[in-house]
Amino acid sequence: MHRVYRFFFGSLFLVAITVLHIGLSYLLPHPWNNMNILISTLMLFLVFTESPVVVWMTMAVFYVIELYAIIPFGIHIFSATMSTLLSLWAYRYVVTGRRWYSTLALTAFAILVYRITYTILLVATSQAAIPFSAYGDLSIQYAWEMLLTSLLTIFLYGIIHVPSLYRNHFWKKYAHR
Q: Does the keyword Transmembrane helix apply (predicted)?
């Protein structure tokens, strides 16, 4: 029964994060609407749980995003899943620490892999030629997304992780007297 509750509330959380991502991308002004709340949440889940379940969560969340996208089906799912898989590999074998700067690097790496894969697949599946000037605009938008998503992840990391540091420090210092 515990697994059913975890699955239900986990699914509800994923739907809420997806709705928040879609809603905020339309409500926030220009540079702030480039935040990718989904990847930020997934990278925080990866850092704090160190579980490969994050790959399945990515597939589920980006499946919902695919339902509302106007691009060919599968581009978001494949790009996000590959980004999460490579981020999981990088977290396990390269970054190995749960510090704020490793979380920042992991988020920037995930966004970079996601956007490179997304752009390559989008160009490969498009019927018309994309003008070269569009890549400059895309790179500026992707840079904003990488910056703002990384800052959001660090902000949320601080909200989640710093109180636990103070709580652990308090218990080590005062509880054993």
A: yes
